[in-house]
Amino acid sequence: MDKLDLIIDAVSEMKSAQEATRTQTQADIELVKSEAQESVQQIKSDIETRLVADIELVKTAAMDGAELVKSEMKSDIENVKSELDTEIQSIKSTVQTLDALVAKQGRKTMTQKNVDVELTKSETFNAAIRAGLKSAQQGEAFLEKGLNTVEQGNGAEVVLTDFDLAVVERMRSRGAMIRDVGVRSVSSKLFDRFIKTKNAETVWIDEDVANAGMTNTAATQRVRVVCTTGKTAAYPFITRESINDSKIDIYGDLKTDIANQIGRGVHESLVKGDVAKKQPKGILGHVDAVESFKSDDERDLRYFQVIESSTAGKLAAGTGVTYSANVQDAILALISAVDAGAREGCKFYVSQAGWLELMKLRDADARPLLCPDISGKAAGTLFTFPVEIEYHLGAVATGEIPMVFGNLGEAFELLSIGESFTQENPYTNPGNIQLYYETRVGTIVKDTTLLKLFRIK
């Protein structure tokens, strides 16, 4: 019994110890849990505090930056506004000065007719030339860099629309070759390029069983060519009385006439310009007494090939049907002189006299040699190639060139040198207005194999 009691007591103590341990463990768990919750809460609180602080810092920086940008923009706007105000005041002052001068010299009528501030920036002389030449859809703009209106105080005025359109009209209506020629704007009258003067040579060879080697064949030869240039100018004057004559717009008429002459001069120099006359060398000037009568394979390609008629003073020998047949042979020789693969885009350019001569010709079946152009864009066709009338080509007479065949846009270039300007001077002679206009143009060859000249023997 004593042992049993001892066992019971021992079990009882063990249970008590387990209960105490469980209670202590539960208490420890609760304590750890409580401490963990406090730590998490503290971390959460710290993070929230830090985030709020960072957000406030970013917000403050953004507001400061916005204020800085706003301040800088406001300052820039104020500066621009100030500059614009200054410019406006300057323009107003200039206009007032011009008005005073106009009133003083009796030029109000001229001013009302010819000064249009809205056209100053958009419609200048060179813009009109550019549009005129682009009507042919060939080459670059005639004056890519622009014809400058010189600003030289109160005496300088713009060249207006009537002058612009007159130049364009001259080129469009009378410039068959100037419509088709390649056009380039260059910065210097010393513009140059390399052109091929001789083709490379090839030979046929056999197996070299003797190991003798071979002689070198000729290489392609090139030469540097420099453009030729010329400057055309006009320096007329008009009186105050003629300007104020209500029956005629003498000021506008003068500008129109000068525009006509500038257009005519550029057109003529393109075809037959003579450097001895201070003009750029024209197409007909690129001829050599020896080289021009050689084929493309043998000729110095700085010069155009010339094909000469068989009879002095005529397109061809013979009369009647024989003459017509011989003219056809001459024309076919002109066409065949251009490589077959390069004939696309080729045209005939004939003088007025040459065109009239061709109009008279009939073949053996009495059919006209010069056929109508169905498209209506040319004066006729010869063997399917368009025919254009070029007034600056020669007559049907000994030594003249009345007919040209080829792709003019690829054979020759007209150059704008970029030295053009206009100026008006109401001061030198009181009561009169001095007007000055000038423009410089140049010419240079491109591929002379693509244009053939027909000369009367």
Describe this entry's structure for a reader.
Strands 1, 2, 5, 6, 12, 13 and 14 form a seven-stranded mixed beta sheet that branches. α3 (125-134) packs parallel to α4 (161-174) and α4 packs parallel to α7 (250-272). A hairpin with a 2-residue loop joins β9 (380-382) and β10. The model is unreliable at 104-165 (pLDDT under 50). It is elongated, with a radius of gyration of 44 Å. With 457 residues, the chain is α/β, with parallel strands linked by helices. It contains ten helices and 15 strands.
**Which class do the helix and strand fractions yield?**
alpha/beta
Secondary-structure element string:
HHHEHHEEEEEHHEHEHEEEHEEEE
Tell me the major beta sheet.
7 strands, mixed
* Tally of separate helices: 10
Q: What general outline do the C-alpha atoms trace?
A: elongated
Radius of gyration: 44 Å
Number of strands: 15
Strand content: 15-25%
> What is the helix fraction of residues, given as a range?
40-55%
Instruction: Give the end-to-end Cα distance, rounded to a whole number of Å.
Output: 164 Å
Mean pLDDT: 78
Q: Can you tell me the residue ranges where pLDDT is under 50 for at least 5 consecutive residues?
A: 104-165
Structural key phrases:
6-stranded mixed sheet; elongated; alpha/beta; 7-stranded mixed sheet; 457 residues; 17% strand
Task: Tell me briefly what this model is.
With 457 residues, the protein is an alpha/beta fold. It is built from 10 helices and 15 strands.
Question: Helices and strands in order, then pairings?
Answer:
Elements (H helix, E strand, L loop, with lengths): L1 H104 L2 H7 L10 H10 L13 E2 L11 H14 L1 H5 L1 E4 L6 E7 L22 E6 L1 E7 L2 E3 H4 L6 H23 L32 E4 L11 H17 L10 E4 L1 H9 L19 E3 L2 E5 L13 E4 L1 H4 E5 L4 E5 L6 E14 L5 E5 L2
Parallel strand pairs: 1-13, 2-12, 7-15, 8-10
Antiparallel strand pairs: 3-4, 5-14, 6-14, 8-11, 9-10, 11-15, 12-14, 13-14
Helix pairs in contact: 3-4, 4-7
